[in-house]
Specification:
Helix 1 crosses helix 2, helix 2 crosses helix 3 and helix 6 packs across helix 10. The chain starts with a helix and ends with a helix. Strand 1 and strand 2 form a beta hairpin. By secondary structure, the chain is α/β, with parallel strands linked by helices. The strands form 3 sheets. Strands 3, 4, 5, 6, 7, 10, 11 and 12 form an 8-stranded mixed β-sheet that branches. A two-stranded antiparallel sheet has the order 1-2.
């Protein structure tokens, strides 16, 4: 099997024109260098160097092999450089996986802060409709870090990020109960709902929350786009239960907390102990993740006015 060391020895002999000088350059003994060159020749199936009394000359096979040897060594050096940059957080690539709602509501400000501090690091983002799909992708090695709900039976490191709160998005002018900051879910049992498409993890969450309140939500419309749910609710199609962090700034509907509360813990998790680049991102995520944006808290508080 050909090794990078053998290729390095071949290139050194060619560049110096001598086994002796190549051995001195590489700080190895001449017999050791000669042995590795012979092993390379055996691996490729032919003679690469013609040993002359006072020089070394490439054979035709050697001339064919040499450019590939140089290219392989250059690629190896680029790999080492990329690894060094990544360890220093100055470059490299981070593969991030999450579910649609988190990718929409939580990650954009975090990624903006990361990009500002680490402009040389590329981010590859994979998004999934359901937390089960996210966990399966992580288990298959498709990303460095996942952001979602706590994965069951996960053996790797898990970092808690906080508890995500869900709110009810309603058309403008709607209010329920004495304290208009809260709406009992049971009060909405006879309404048509803005629901999520089957396969979206939020569809399961809405069904569970309504079941606990004693009813099954009747869908006026089902959307695959998480961002569309509060807008459709504000347009009058029905109430929608949405992550608080996806309610847009300038939302022209009503925002209320459901009663009982609907919440889900969010975590970041990896397969093994995070490398420096991944660990730095997880730390930033833990500091920057905003689960209840100020403008949504203001909309909720406005209901008590």
């Amino acid at each position: 099997m050909t090794t990078l060391r053998q290729l390095e020895y071949l290139v050194a002999v060619v560049d110096t024109g001598s086994f002796t000088r190549a051995a001195e350059l590489l700080h190895v003994t001449q017999p050791a260098l000669s042995h590795q060159v012979r092993a390379l020749e055996k691996a490729v199936g032919g003679t690469l160097l013609e040993r002359l009394p006072r020089a070394v000359r490439l054979t035709p096979m050697g001339r064919a092999v040499l450019p590939h040897a140089r290219a392989a060594l250059a690629d190896a050096e680029r790999l080492r450089a990329a690894a060094r940059l990544t360890a220093g957080l100055d470059g490299g690539e981070l593969e991030l996986a999450t579910v649609y709602s988190v990718g929409l509501g939580i990650l954009p400000p975090v990624l903006r802060a990361w990009r500002r501090d680490h402009p040389g690091v590329r981010i590859r983002l994979r998004e999934f409709a359901h937390n089960d799909e996210l966990r399966a992708a992580m288990a298959a090695g498709q990303a460095d870090v996942a952001v979602g709900t706590t994965p069951p039976d996960w053996e790797g490191p898990i970092r808690e990020l906080g508890v995500e709160e869900f709110v009810l998005a309603l058309p403008a002018g709607e209010g329920h109960g004495n304290d208009r900051r809260f709406v009992p879910l049971a009060d909405l049992a006879d309404r048509d709902w803005v629901h999520y498409a089957p396969g979206n993890g939020l569809a399961d969450l809405v069904d569970r929350a309504c079941a606990e309140a004693g009813f099954r939500p009747r869908a006026a419309v089902r959307t695959e786009q998480t961002a569309a749910a509060p807008l459709l609710a504000a347009a009058g199609l029905g109430p929608a239960l949405v992550p608080a962090n996806i309610v847009p700034v300038g939302f022209d509907g009503v925002v209320r907390r459901p009663e009982p509360p609907v919440r889900r813990p969010l975590v970041a998790y990896t397969r093994t102990r995070p490398d420096p680049l991944t660990a730095a991102f997880v730390e930033l995520l833990a500091r920057q993740a905003c689960l209840l944006p100020p403008h949504v808290a203001e909309l909720i508080a406005a209901g008590a006015a």
